[in-house]
Each structure stands twice: as C-alpha cells, then as structure tokens.
Amino acid sequence: xxxxxxxxxxxxxxxxxxxxxxxxxxxxxxxxxxxxxxxxxxxxxxxxxxxxxxxxxxxxxxxxxxxxxxxxxxxxxxxxxxxxxxxxxxxxxxxxxxxxxxxxxxxxxxxxxxxxxxxxxxxxxxxxxxxxxxxxxxxxxxxxxxxxxxxxxxxxxxxxxxxxxxxxxxxxxxxxxxxxxxxxxxxxxxxxxxxxxxxxxxxxxxxxxxxxxxxxxxxxxxxxxxxxxxxxxxxxxxxxxxxxxxxxxxxxxxxxxxxxxxxxxxxxxxxxxxxxxxxxxxxxxxxxxxxxxxxxxxxxxxxxxxxxxxxxxxxxxxxxxxxxxxxxxxxxxxxxxxxxxxxxxxxxxxxxxxxxxxxxxxxxxxxxxxxxxxxxxxxxxxxxxxxxxxxxxxxxxxxxxx
Length: 402
Description:
single chain, two-stranded antiparallel ribbon, five-stranded mixed beta sheet, alpha+beta
C-alpha cells in the first residue's frame, strides 16, 4: 500500500454526508496508536493554536509533528532528558495581558468593535452602535459543548446581520480544528461578525505598538496563531446551511499604544500563514506513517529511564533551527544533538539554505580549504573564494602590524 493511499482522508475532501465508511475506523486506529505512544494511562495534552502555529513554522520536523499529534507532554519529556525548556510568559506578563484584554473588551466590546471597524470595516459597514451589538453567551459544558454553542451563535449572528445589519461580538469562542483525525479545541480572543455576515478574527497581545508598528517577529507569531483560527472558522462556515459566509483573511491585531495601556489596532494579512498551516495540517494527517517507522514498543513516557527515553525520542528525526528555542520544549535537547552532529542547521535556516548539499560544519570547512567538494559546485567555489579572501586579509593585517 502506498503512503498516499494509506493516509487518513482530509476533512475538506468529503462533506459530512459523503465520508468514506472506513474513515472512522482509520481514525480510531490512529488514536489508539497515538495513545500507545504516550504511555499507559497518560491523557493527551491538548494541542492549541500556539502549538499548531509553531508546528507550521517548522514543517519538516517529524519529531514535533508526531509528539504534538500524539498529545505527548514535551515539557515533561524535556525535564526527564535533563534539558528543560526555558521559555514562557512570566506571571507578571500574564497579569498585565489579562488586564489589557479586559480593558479592550469593556462595555460589551464597544472599543474593540470601533477598532475593527476602523481597520477592516467595509464601505457598507455602519458604525457599530453600543446596545445594538449582539454579544451572545457562549458558556456550555465541556469543549464540545462550547464548540457547538459557538457554531450556533455564529449562525444566529449571520442571520441577524442579514435581517437588520447588526454587528456581533463573540468573546473567547471555542472552535474545533481536525488534526490527525482528532479535534483540537482552539480559543481565539474574539471573533467579530460584520453587518455583511463576514467574520474577522481578533488577536489581543500585550506587546506594544510603537509609532504604529510592533516587533516584526512578534507580529509574525501572532499572524501564524491567528491563521489557525481562520482555518478553524472556515471549517465552521463550510458546515453552515447559509451559503457564502466569508472568513476574512485580514485579522485585527490589538496591542497597547506606545507605552500606555490604551489600545491600538492594525490589520494583518494572514493568507500566507493560512496556506502554510493548511499544508502542514495536510501532512499531519499522515503521522501514522511516521509512527509506523518507529521501532516496536517505542513509548514516550517520562517515567522511562533516561537512556530508554532518549532512544525513543531519537528514533524520530528532528529538524532543529534556532527559532525552535522560542517555540518548542525540546529545543535545548535537539540543539545539543544538532551541535554534536556538527549540523549547519544549528547556525540558522538562511545559512543552511545557502550551503546546499553541505549539511555539516566539517563538510563546509573541508570544502572551503580545498580538501573536499566539487570545484564546479557554486557553493564550494564561493566558500573557497571566501577562504582565500580571509587568508589574504589576515596576511595583510599581520604584515601591517609589523
């Protein structure tokens, strides 16, 4: 059986009424296999939008794809391996962020809707009027209940928009996105329904927007996270009986203005991030292929001996890059292994891309010194020119110092 025919069908390939009869059996088998990988009696760690966005940012890492898909607690694994993660928000930052979000959403989201209208409102969108904005109650029992309640609230908001052109503000809705045959429950900060029935994702962050611009890396991370929410909303829209519901591909990012606690907003186009994340989720439906390549009896259980746990983790190929340090609990372990192997990925993806088939530092140095490599290879030729220029510069500096 080929890899393509063995993978799970994607949700987008079949409407609810036309799913192949064996898809449920395949999904159940995969979930059972992933439960075996987590270890006995170990509940799965929920996959959130941050994890999915980080996975999409490093789509070639089989290790992260499998461990996240299986719901393995990578933080506990890193602690057991002696390489604990060193990232995360401080309690002060969390408190400050929660206070800022509460301020933005005060008065039924009046200020938030004003910012959305200013950033992405269409010419036909009337200014939101406080008191006439729908603000449905999304409380329900469990994530499945909240997801169903959110879908119902979105449908009612679309119907209301078609009837009288009102806005709707959904505070912390719950969305479900199919990941490897299992639902990942996601909770965006807010979703706004416009008078034309379209939907906009709102991300509220505590990093500042100074002179109308925020840190590019933080904006990029927020855009990748918001793209996950857009994909989840598109699945909700596809299941609605109303045709033509649009999920806008520009999200609204709300941050503190300059060094104050006043909100400022900017529209961010997430089409590129959405496409990358969709491709990665498509690949995630084939994590059963990654699991099948593991040695029999492989278990990612933090209670294992360090040697056994290390062997289990190393059985899954990883693609390390310095960016992993800010996004993955296993980054320090992978960095140590990458350095020990002399991999050029330790130096960053841009340099790795420039070096072509030279994948280790030793191979790069050998090519630069003329000890290996094809002289006709442009990469090898460039390295040798750089080495010659360096030697010439050092010789000139030595002569000038005498």
